[in-house]
Prior knowledge:
Number of strands: 19
Structural class: mainly beta
Strand content: over 45%
Number of helices: 0
Oligomer: single chain
Amino acid sequence: MLGLSGPLFAVEIVSPRDGVEIPIGSEVVVQVQPSPDDDIVRVYMSGSEEAMKYNDKTGYFEQRVKLRGDAFGSVPVEVTSVNSKNVISTATVNVYVKLPPVLPLISLRIHAEQRQLVLESIGEHKNLQVIGEFPDGTVRIISAKLYGTTYLSRNTDVATVDANGIVTAMSVGETVIVVRNGQNETQAKIIVRTMPSDGPKTDT
Length: 204
């Protein structure tokens, strides 16, 4: 879907097209066409301070972008333009980042700060950051079920874990979450405790 604000059709993203499928980790060339009725002087990618370069041959503002290695599903591509009167407009398309049919995995690990995960109150949620290393040298967060990662809590009375690695504290205690993907396995120790209350102090 193409979304615009400011002057109508001040800029249009002509590439990539809305809804196009792109393999994960791909590089794409973003091309933005300015309206001939609007004097666009600068165009930026969302989250970037570097202005896109104008290509005299194509008549488009262009920038090459490498998609994040853990980006998948519907991913927005947004640009912001500024005309000679400092009027700002935006344009957005959504590309669909797809996983390869086979996702070989060399190694699996949990983020170092989460190998012993502490939850301070009953009902608190935390998302396990599961990291996979692949044959092409890339390292990606593969916590989502979509990557084939599975989870098992050895004591669901203490903590549960859903299909996407979100851990929920159920009661005070300790348990282990077992994480698997293919032949690879790792674990996280879960500690659930309650914060000490600041009760009234008594003189001794």
